[in-house]
Every structure is written in C-alpha cells, then in structure tokens.
Amino acid sequence: MKEQSEQQNRKGAFLVVVIPAYNEEMTISEVISRVPRHIAGISEVRVLVVDDGSTDRTRELALAAGAAVMTHRVNRGVGSAYRTGVEKALAMGADIIVNMDADGQFNPADIPTLIGPILRGEAGFVTASRFKDPALVPDMSPVRLWGNRMMSRLISRITGWRLHDVSCGFRACSRDVALSLNLWGAFTYTQETFLDLAFKGVEPVEIPLVVRGEREHGKSRVARNLWSYGHRAFLIIMRAYRDYWPWNFFSRLAFASFAIAACLGGFVLYWRITHKSFSPHLWSGFVGGFFAMMGMFCLLMGLVGEMLKSIRLNQERMLYYLRKRHFEKLGNESGANGERQGVDE
Fold first, then answer.
1. What class, spelled out in words, does domain 2-244 have in CATH?
2. Distance between the two ends of the chain, CA-based, in angstroms?
3. Tens digit of pLDDT for each residue in 64-88?
4. Full-prediction pTM beyond 0.90?
5. Would 2 disulfide with which of 105, 121, 196, 294, CB 3.0-4.6 Å?
C-alpha cells in the first residue's frame, strides 16, 4: 500500500468522486460545483454521477455542471448505484475513489482531509464518522441516532473493530481496495462494505467530520421508513455474516437450538420423575428432539460453510487479479488514445 502511495505521490494520483443520485435536481449542481479540483498530491479530479433512474432533471443538471454521468434506466437502489460508480471509476483509471451523497449533507471541501491517510499510505479505506467525536454529532431524530448506534455496535461485534459510524456514505478507498471489494446488496452498501473489508483484513480509518443531520431539500428515502431500512439492512448484514464467517453464524444457531432442546427435554424429564408420567407434556420431548436435530443440522451447515469459505477465498483472490488485469488493459487502451477512459450510458 505504501509503495503504491509513493508512486501516486510522485506522479500525482487520479481522483474520481462518485455521486449516486436519485431525483436530486435541487442539490446536484451545487454538490458538483463544490468538489475541489486542485488538491495536493492529486493530478486530476473528475466527478462521476450515477443517475439511479431519476425522473427529474438530475442527469441534465449533472452534465451541465461538468460531471460525467452513468444512467440506470430504472431505480436499482443505492447499493447497485455504488457498485456501478466504483466499476466505472476503475475503468476510468482512478487511483483513489471518493463516494458521497448527492443531497448536500456532506461537505465536498472535506475531501482532501478524507483522502489524506490514503495519500500518505496509512490506509486503504477511509470513512467519515458523524459520531466518533461527540462534539460533531449532527442533529437527527432519536430513532435515527439509536438505529445508527445499534448498527455500529452490531458491525463492531462481528468485525472485532471499534467502529462509531458504519452508515455514513462519505468514504474513500484506494484503487487496490476497490478492486478487492465484492458487494452484493442492491438496497444499501454501507454496512456490508465493513464486513467485506474485515474478511479481507483491510482495517478502515474513521475521520470525524461535520455532517448535516437532515436534508435541506426533500426527505431521505431512509428517513421515510426507518424500520423498513433497518430490517433490509439487517438482512444484508446477516447474509454477509453467514457467507464470510459460516462457522460463527451456524454455531450460534446450533447453540440456541441445543439450549431450547435442553430446556424442553429437562422439563419433560422432570415431569416424568415427579409425576411418573409424560402426559400431558409428551409434546415437549418431541419438540425438544426437533430442536436437537436442528442444532446438529446447523453444526453440519457450519462445517460445510467453512469448506466453501476456503473455495471462496481462492475465487476472490483470482477475481481480484482478473479485475486488476481487466482494468489495466482498459487503462492502457485509453492511454494509447491519449485520454482517460470515457463514460457511456
């Protein structure tokens, strides 16, 4: 990572700022115009807007503001928009990729601070944190604040890292880390990213930054239905946890099943000893036996999952090198043409 950073600093790194957007005509022009074009250690800055099926003038205004635009014909979700943006940024030859929302809650002037650890070779992934510094906690509803903290605690427990904010969309990564990311969630990407990084041993850096707590225009799609967002994000997290750490996931389910089986079995045995009969609680023994079998099944799934995990590790390693070769080829082709890789719809 440090060698890559030294090479970037000698020639100046190419930065692509990815902005997923859905019906953000009120703010997109201002956000693009505020992205700094001259940053120490950066040779070129480009803005890439991923229009996720907007029905307003987001695309036209983004083009008018000087951004390159990728367009989804239909709304696919911010997770899909993020993946599209990262893939296109890599194809453009980006050395560093910054992701930020289009609603104006993040300050583009903070981009130099955000990418600082990457330029210095201290980190491969950096995220803004709204909660690491208590003095910078933005104004938001108690429910949103509680939900963010619960998500951070859950991800921290799974990864073993002390994370304060896993839901902030203002983040930066090096080209090497972007090539290794393998995300699947269409609805969101924020929490899943940390699990993928932990699986690959890439520890993120959190930088406390001032972030606006509420949108100036319109209403967040997340804020419109916090419980739906929490439920869908939780399912994405659990699927990732199952795939990355199958033994941990299934052994916990097995422990819970065995605990229920022991309680039910112990109860029916106690009843048999004290009342000389299984009736009328014979059902407890059958249900307890069912949970005992479920526990054994979960342990078996955990063992199989660990074997599949070994295969996945090899596949992800091969995928990384295939991506690297693919995007290097695209970069060489665009370099031969004397210009950066363009952006198509």
1. alpha beta
2. 33
3. 999 999 999 999 988 999 999 999 9
4. no
5. 121
